[in-house]
Amino acid sequence: MQAVKLHHTALVTTAVVAVGAVVTTILQVATGDFPVEFFAFPMNLVVAALWLLSLAELWRRRRESVVAKYMLSMWATYLSLALAAVCGVAAGIMAELPTRKWWFVVALLFVMSHLVLVTLRGWRNAEGVRWRFLLNHVGLLLALGAGFWGAPDIEELRLPLVEGRPTSEAYVREGRSVPLGYEMSLLDFDAAYYDNGTPSDFAARVEIAGEEVTLRVNSPYRYRWGEDIYLVNYEKDLARRTRCIVQVVRDRWAPIMAFGIVLMLAGAALMFAHGAKRGVRKEVQR
Amino acid sequence: MMLGWPILPWATALVVALSLAAAVVAAKAKERSVWAISLAALAVVVMGGFIAQLWVVLERPPMRTMGETRLWYSFCLLCAGLFTYARWRYRWILSFSTLMATVFLLINCLRPEIHDSSLMPALQSAWFVPHVAVYMFSYALLGCALLLALYGFCNRRADIDDAIEQLLYGGVAFFTVGMLSGALWAKQAWGYHWSWDPKEAWAAATWIIYLAAIHLRLHRPDCRRIFRIIVVVGFCTLQMCWWGVNYLPNVERSVHTYNIDN
């Protein structure tokens, strides 16, 4: 009986992978890359809400629904881990980032759906809350979720700053100029060098919306919640003046990701402190 | 008195002699040997002393170049080997950790590379030392797990997998801290916690493969062979993450290129 059941779930997993591969390939060929921009705010919130509602419905029907049963099975865990590993290796090996490919998006969505369901099932047992499990799984879910659903909302703007020329015009990566909404001007720039000519330190004194701040590498300025300003580079322009390249990153989902990361750090500490626990294994097997 | 890189061959000779003596004593002893532990601990102290004087001479943390991270790896391997022996009494683990640490030290002795003293602004951060040190310690624990897994293929002792599992929990915990401290640092330096940089991507793949081993062990402790195979595969991916990524064509879009050519 056990062998038949195992065989059955393995077959279902193979079918899920095959169907997923065919559907995402057709979508990729027919529509090109995943339309990330379409899911910018508020569309991402609407779709994320619908996704969570359908997971809640699956969870409610976990005893009768075959989909829910499969999504909560150990094979779904192995498939999620395999898909996540494939995503990592693909991003590590390919010249072009695969993050806009349909298969990549669908694979991550599967991983997150499985994570939500197993977290609902496993966050506590008869003895109480399983803190290590909870911190690790919720932390990963928040970090992954903020990266996934927040990706369409990220704005990266760059401004070349030259002394004595205040500007509020920024450029997106494609070269289009957009209004920044506040003014920035370079007051002073300073660089120090090692004997071999490589820079040891560089810093720019900048006025941002009337406030004077010093920007340097590893030391950005937080303009407001989810909007940080970085000094990324400097160069000499044609008139031999120093031009600083300043980058503005608007990512309102970043604090959620940071919170997820902190939860996972706590989970890692518990993982080291407690090690492999025999009790947990018996619990799961039962 | 001469200090810095030139004394590496002497330090290597001393460290190898001490840990070799510890390994021989441990292999011959029936019980946990205090002598083996003391000799191995002395090797750790000498190795740590060498790194400390290098840090002072270079006037920056010696963690940037591949040669420098190999020093830390040897140091962490000696620590992890000592820890594993003291905790689980595998009498041959010190032989393996000695062998691996010796290989890494010899690479540094035989290929004295140009070690320049500059540290670019991007690496001048409070995150730098913990990020690299934690990773090196996790690599060492996972290296010990690999040695046990390989040993497990030709030995039927059931408790080997328990020790591998414990090493995985420690190694993966440190790996997680290394990866996530990197993410927090990346936000501060470049604006994003995660940007699928080739090094990040390989780190994520490595992390997930080790998590697969941990999950498999939780649910199917009887699948010993597959468990050990995953541990071996995880260590191969770890090598991609550590240095293999430098030889990939997509390294051009990587921001982790401080250690290339040295």
Major sheet attributes of chain B:
none
**Structural domains of chain A: how many:** 2
Q: Please estimate the helix content of chain A.
A: 40-55%
Low-confidence stretches of chain A: 279-286
Secondary-structure blueprint:
The complex is a heterodimer of chains A (286) and B (262).
Chain A: H1 2-31, H2 43-60, H3 66-71, H4 74-93, H5 102-122, E1 124-125, E2 128-129, H6 131-150, E3 155-162, E4 167-171, E5 177-193, E6 199-208, E7 211-216, E8 221-224, E9 227-236, E10 242-250, H7 254-274, H8 278-285
Antiparallel strand pairs in A: 1-2, 3-10, 4-5, 5-6, 6-7, 8-9, 9-10
Helix pairs in contact in A: 1-5, 2-5, 4-5, 5-6, 6-7
Chain B: H1 8-28, H2 34-58, H3 66-88, H4 93-110, H5 128-153, H6 159-190, H7 198-219, H8 224-242
Helix pairs in contact in B: 1-2, 1-4, 2-3, 3-4, 3-5, 5-6, 5-8, 6-7, 7-8
Question: Key terms for this structure?
Answer:
heterodimer; A: 286 residues; Tick-borne Encephalitis virus Glycoprotein, domain 1; 2 domains; four-stranded antiparallel beta sheet; 8 helices; B: mainly alpha; 71% helix; flat
Account of the protein in words:
The complex is a heterodimer of chains A (286) and B (262). With 286 residues, chain A is an alpha+beta fold. Chain A has 2 domains: 2-153 and 254-285, no CATH class; 155-250, Sandwich (Tick-borne Encephalitis virus Glycoprotein, domain 1), CATH 2.60.98. In chain A, 50% of the residues lie in helices and 26% in strands. Chain A has 8 helices and 10 strands. Chain A has helices spanning 2-31, 43-60, 66-71, 74-93, 102-122, 131-150, 254-274, 278-285; strands at residues 124-125, 128-129, 155-162, 167-171, 177-193, 199-208, 211-216, 221-224, 227-236, 242-250. In chain A, a hairpin with a 5-residue loop joins strand 9 and strand 10 (242-250). In chain A, helix 4 packs antiparallel against helix 5. Chain A is elongated and about 70 Å long. Mean pLDDT of chain A is 91; it is low at 279-286. Helices cover 71% and strands 0% of the residues of chain B. Chain B contains 8 helices and no strands. Chain B folds into 2 domains: 1-112; 123-254. With 262 residues, chain B is mainly α. Chain B starts with 7 loop residues before the first helix and ends in a 20-residue tail after the last helix. Classes of the chains: A alpha+beta (286), B mainly alpha (262). Chains A and B meet through helix 4, strand 6, strand 9, helix 7 and helix 8 of A and helix 6, helix 7 and helix 8 of B.
